[in-house]
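so im writing up the methods section and need the N-methylhydantoinase A record in one place, dumping it here so i stop losing it
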Amino acid sequence: MQYWLGVDTGGTFTDFVLLGGEQPRIHKVLSTPAAPERAILQGIEDMGLSGALALGELVIVHGSTVATNAALENKGAKTVVITNSGIEDLLLIGRQNRPELYNLRPLPTHTALHDTPVIGVDTRQDAQGATLIPLTDEAIRQTVEAVRRHDPESVAINLLFSYLDPAAEQRLGEALRQAGYPVSLSSDILPTRGEYERGMATWLNAWLSPRMADYLARLKQHTAPAPLTIMQSNGGTIAADQAAERAVNLLLSGPAGGLNAARRLGQALGRDHLMTFDMGGTSTDVALLDGDIRLTRQGRIGPYPVAVPMVDMHTIGAGGGSLAQVDDAGLLHVGPQSAGASPGPACYGQGGTQATVTDANLVLGRLQPEFALGGNLRLDPAKAHDAVARVAERLGMPIPQAAQGIIDLANEHMSQALRVISIQKGFDPRDFTLVSFGGAGGLHVCALATNLGMHQAVVPVRAGVLSAEGLVYAPRQRERIQALPADAEAAHIQTLARQLERQARAELEAEGIEADRISTETGLDLCYQGQSSVLTLPWQGEDPAQSEAAFHDLHEQRYGHRLSLPVRRVNLRVRCLAEARPPSPGQAPRGEGTPAWEAPVYGSAGDKSAAQNKEGNKTKIPVYRRDELGADQVIYGPALIFEPVGTIYIEADWQARVHPSAHLLLTSL
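--- predicted struct ---
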């Protein structure tokens, strides 16, 4: 194809990156949450790509928030759960984890799961997969009739030990499909031990898939004949047709694109230890890359556990659109509520009146009225000033100090999120480079690095749309997982690995991927006897004793100790992938790098050269256009560097050097 288009739909903006011309083209439009495809089609038209779309010269790779938003807003489809008789309350009982450990009278939390009908079917097999109560034709008929009475949009089937023998689930599923219902089987969605986690993943998939299918059908209708692929939560892409049936694998679709781009950036710069910080309009996503993207099977979306593989990421409600409010006790709060895309921050001039982080940055001068966000959204300083003034009045302090307080509080929220994925997991932030992206990230990167004692940071080229660009470079990928019997030998594992590989390869080849482009990675989940959490190690068919020795070493490295207990082989994982082949982005342009003008800015508390934030006391600092910077040019803070999709604030005691590839390498002085 001539053009590749990455499209990342966020809560505030929808970002576009186009590869295929002499230089990458970028664009932003405000998101349209009620119908996300409208913003995508607007962006395609704005970029003049309608012709390429009609001629079939465009490949679209999309990171979607539809499944995530549906889960968080309890807007999934009407779903029925089918399980074994006697355990109908399994998903509601869960693991007895309490959010407030010492609260003896916790308030019940009502979720969509409480409104989900559950049907018990009289069948059972034991922990070895042997049938105890066979599934009869009469039981299937009664189950189908019970489902009809509820008139659902989707059905989830989760039977005990179905990962050992899926025959009963498959018979039920076939009968319900013939009756016209979309069905999700736990033996297909997550064939592993843990009936609760497996059941939750299956219910989430059934609950969200109809919404995802409706959205993708509308999007495909408007973007045909362009190939459309969707980013999965594990960092690989999948064809839209298959993605519609795998909604549970799309819950971190958009953020995974940014990690792909960060990994590629680290390889180019020779930096393996990265902490990423993706600050958008609605939320901030942070993650740690220690040589590669880290995956987790213990993720959560809102109140729901998600055990399918997803990028190990921590998300908080702090973004450019986070609302600043003063409570009745006179304390300032920032987030997690957001102004979103509509009405947005007050300075957008679209009806918003409450102060946000973006408004505070504009009041402090770190955003300038001349900076048109996305190239076309003009900022209104007067509206930002009025919004922050109302906060300042309630706090009883000057407006600049209130604005700085909003920024400081937002920075502390984001710093704490970075501590969660580093210090709390045994990593020293000082050993890592902070990679900042997202439309708002560059305004806060120096402050966050300082808060964590970090001395190196990078703001990549096109940082404001890096997640969209990462989508284009993401590999096509399928991952298969299968629980292993307790006595699994090496020969059995090898046979099962070949079977899972054939399944994954067949799906990729069905999407048009040539067989010789597909590579395979095989992993084994191991744990000590009695443990519930696992560690994944590569599996090459070696002697099981070698795997156990490697597990002992990894466990000691990760947790500081090893145990003299038997090692269990829990799950086999097979990942097949084909690297993407988009057009080269080309060389970054080089300019003279002189300041475009000087802007009056209130300095932060750490700026020794700037006056403290008092009314009428600003310092003029240089403002650079990023596309005019020269290779190896060094810029000393305080300074502003702006581009249509983001602004970078270089604080005092920091400097930025322009990499030959146009990335900004930040170093504390």
